[in-house]
Amino acid sequence: MASYISDGLIDRISERADIVEVISHYLPLRKAGKNYKALCPFHQEKTPSFMVSSEKQLFHCFGCAAGGNVFNFVMKWEKISFPEAVKMIGEKVGISVAAFNEEGGKAILKEELYRTNEKVADLFQQELKRMASVKNYLKQRGFTPEMIDKFRVGWAPASRDFLKIAQAKGISLENLKKLSLLIPSQKKDGWYAWFRERLIFPIFTPEGRICGFGGRILDNSLPKYLNSSSSLIFDKGRILYGLNLSKEAIRQKEEVILVEGYTDVMALYQREIRNAVASLGTSLTSSQARLIKRYTDRVFIAYDQDKAGISATLRGIDLLLENDLEIRIISMPRGVDPADLVNKEGEGSFLQKRNEAPAYFDYRLNLEIQKRPSLRREDKRAIIGEIFPTLAKVRNLITLGELVRSLSQRLDLDEEMIRTEFKRFKRKERGFLSRPEFLKIEDGQEKRERMLLQLMLDDEAVVKLVEERWDLDNFTNPDHHRIAKEIIISWKKGKRSFSRLINQLREENLSSIISSFSLSKSPFKTDDKEKLALDLINKWQRSKIQERISELMKNIKESQRKGKEEKINQWWEELTHLKRQISLR
After folding, report:
1. Hey, is 446 helix, strand or coil?
2. Average pLDDT of the chain?
3. What pLDDT score was predicted for residue 568?
4. What domains appear along the chain, each with residue ranges and CATH number?
5. 477 CB contacts (<8 Å, ≥6 apart)?
6. Cα separation of 383 and 389, whole Å?
7. Is the Cβ–Cβ distance between 272 and 147 less than 8 Å?
8. d(CA 144, CA 138)
9. Cis bond leading into 373, ω under 30°?
């Protein structure tokens, strides 16, 4: 079961914690009217746009849209989860959150497993000191003793030796089994070590605790790399190797370099390129993409450019695009990894390739054009078919527009034609309409939804009106739907609070929407918010009726042209009824 903290305990901590006092420990706040201002810590700016409200217990940056309550701030600053933020703030205000209330002593067991991994790492490090041949291998790879100690590299001895040393050091065999560092023998009774005669790289959580290990063989045996099995404290799909040491550099440089191997991270770090992480295997996961997003919006991918490396790059890109990350591809020589490059040619060569790294879309388009250099009509159609799935992952509309323009220029095709075809592609995949006027209509709908939400946040009468006259499924934006639903629940419980609403939703993008509404100047020119909400609902209903009228008239005209008049009377009857409704509104 996931960690759980009761809503009541969260409310108590939230009520006792003053957001101004908490944020003041992290950055200087300056009084500005009834609020406080500062330079935003989450993006670079010269004019303060970061606002903190003591009255509403919220913060919002009008430059980068970061916002929320005291928990959101600590989560974003410390790069921690919601339960961890609640625990941290609880300790500041004197309210204990015992071990996150985890069930069945799971938190205690986790601590034991972390301590066991620490002892095992010490064991591996001590074994490395005895292995002259392995130390010589690391020296030949260019690693200094200081760097080897920094990353706590070790050596796994033979299985029998590992068991003997572990028992002599008093390491719990039961915990070794729970960590799958010991696994049952298939040939006879007994246990043997998972890592045997391998170079060992401890894998750390972002906070610096050893959660698992990676092992590399030094001969031609297979598999070349071997990771710890999943355990209570290790899931390789949720970890990025080296993040514990690189997170501050990533934050300062506002970019991360994504590589494949442990030694790539170490070699770059040793050469003062300290914003690199590895994905513990070439295939990225959704969790790793979200983890990257916590620290930066910009990713440079430096995978091997052999066939497997290119495939891995393409597989991971979709996940990064879905998390709205800017992606560039560092072009590595075939068969050469970043560690080899910096050791042979120095960090300058790698940094030059980083500076020349093309945007992912250009890289992707170049790959397709290289396959079909003649660019005949059928080639262009095939390229568009390969590129559209990538475009469909792009969330930023401005970026999407620029990419469509670039595609039209590279293929010498009409831009508007590509836009039309892309809309049809999306319609087939996700049910989007392809009419040219559709985007304009959707923009108007988005604006009306945001206005309705803002009115709901301000006025209980509007909440009741929406509940009575509006179906929440009418919200086309799923974020708006979730916020509106939670507003109604909160009002019914009699607990109207922006901060509490954010606690219930617990998502950064939703927190930003709420804080933006709360701390922005009201766009409404009248105090009659109930009437405004009713007008918005009527406009939406009128718009839907008008769409149906247009559809019916099209159906009638088409049926008359084809001589199929079976449903025409039924359609005329519905059309007359809808026109009467329009006239009454």
Report:
1. helix
2. 83
3. 78
4. 7-101 (3.90.580.10), 104-234 (3.90.980.10), 242-357 (3.40.1360.10), 373-434 (no CATH), 435-585 (1.10.860)
5. 446, 449
6. 11
7. no
8. 8
9. no
Are 83 and 5 a contacting pair, CB within 8 Å? yes
Neighbouring C-alpha atoms within 13 Å toward the C-beta of 4: 7
335: Cβ–Cβ under 8 A, 6 or more apart, which residues? 304, 306
**Residue 459 has what pLDDT?**
81
> Is residue 191 a contact partner of residue 184, using CB atoms and an 8 Å limit?
yes
Tens of pLDDT, residue by residue over 438-483, are: 334 344 566 778 888 888 887 888 888 888 887 887 776 778 888 8
Give the span between the Cα atoms of 166 and 191, in whole angstroms: 13
Task: Count how many Cα atoms sit within 13 Å of the Cα of residue 562 in the half-sphere of its side chain.
Answer: 11
Residue 198 has pLDDT above 50, yes or no: yes
Tracing tokens 């008239």 back to the chain, one arrives at 553
Assign 131 a pLDDT band (cuts: 50, 70, 90): very high
| Ranges assigned E (strand) in 100-146 | none
432 confidence band (pLDDT: 50, 70, 90): very low
Residue with tokens 């009008």: 62
Instruction: Choose among 213, 227, 292, 224: nearest CA to 259.
Output: 292
CB 255 within 8 A of CB 275: yes
Q: Which residues pair with 184 in a beta bridge?
A: 191
Helix/strand/coil (H/E/C) assignment for every residue in 360-415: HHHHHHHHHHHHCCCCCHHHHHHHHHHHHHHHCCCCCHHHHHHHHHHHHHHHCCCH
Contact 236, 279 (CB under 8 A): no
pLDDT digits (tens, 9 = 90+) for 349-385: 999 999 988 888 888 888 888 887 767 666 777 888 8
Distance CA 538, CA 502 (A): 29
What's the distance, CA 60 to chain centroid? 20
User: What is the percent of the chain where pLDDT is above 70?
Assistant: 87
Q: What is the pLDDT of residue 421?
A: 81
DSSP H helices, 412-528, are: 415-430, 438-458, 460-469, 478-492, 498-505, 508-519
Say how far apart CA 172 and CA 113 lie, in whole Å.
9
In this predicted model, what pLDDT tens digit does every residue of 495-509 receive, in sequence order?
777 788 888 887 877
Cα 329–Cα 331–Cα 336 angle in degrees, nearest 5:
130
Element (H or E) spanning 173, and its range? helix 173-178
What pLDDT does residue 196 have?
95
49-53, 243-247, 527-531, 540-544: least confidently modelled range: 540-544
Q: How far apart, in Å, do the first and last CA atoms of the chain sit?
A: 52
Joined tokens for residue 281: 């295997």
Question: What single-letter DSSP state applies at residue 142?
Answer: T
| CA 104 to chain centroid | 30
Half-sphere exposure of 320 (CA within 13 A, CB side): 26
Q: How far apart are CA 191 and CA 175, in angstroms?
A: 13
Strands 154-156 and 198-204: antiparallel
